[in-house]
Amino acid sequence: VGEQWLPVLDVSLLLSKDEGALELRTACETIGFYFLENYEELLPQSVVKGMLEASAAAHALPTEHKEEWWLNGSDSGFMPV
After folding, report:
1. Which one Pfam family would you cite for this protein (predicted)?
2. 21: which residues sit within 8 A by CB, 6+ positions away?
3. Residues linked to residue 35 through DSSP beta bridges, in sequence order
4. How far is CA 77 from the centre of its chain?
5. What is the pTM of this model?
6. 34 and 48 co-located in one domain
7. 31-57 b/e with 16+ CB inside 10 Å = b?
8. Pairing with 63, which of 2, 8, 32, 81 sits 20 to 30 Å away (CA)?
9. Is the domain of 18 the same as that of 45?
10. Sign of the C-alpha dihedral, residues 25, 29, 30, 35?
11. Contact indicator for 74, 45 with CB cutoff of 8 Å
């Protein structure tokens, strides 16, 4: 397996010009995810905490319940592994 890098994107660059948009697009198309830094002034820690709690609660649901969110050909939703 080859060595890969995790793109680190700065919010200030994303909010500025085309360079930030190009970096975001490249990260999404090549790696599929990225690390976003300096986001705190746009996304308070309390919001991040709430998102993590909601994600943990969704993952803890029984499989039968999560199957109601079946992908079914879309790019979002539940897919069992």
Report:
1. DIOX_N
2. 14
3. 8
4. 14
5. 0.53
6. no
7. eeebebeebeeeeeeeeeeeeeeeeee
8. 32
9. no
10. positive
11. no
Single-letter amino acid code for the residue at 52? L
Burial letters 3-26, b for 16+ CB under 10 A, else e: eeeebebebeebeeeeebeebbee
Angstrom CA distances, 75 to 14, 15, 69, 70, stand at: 24, 26, 12, 10
**Residue 18 — very low, low, confident or very high, per pLDDT cuts 50/70/90?**
confident
Looking at the structure, tell me whether residues 3 and 34 fall in a common domain: yes
**Could you give the number of structural domains in the chain?**
2
Residue-number span of the structural domain to which 13 is assigned: 1-38
Q: Which residues contact 2 (CB under 8 A, 6 or more apart)?
A: none
| Chain segment 22-31, per-residue pLDDT in tens | 888 888 888 8
Distance separating alpha carbons of residues 18 and 12, to the nearest angstrom: 12
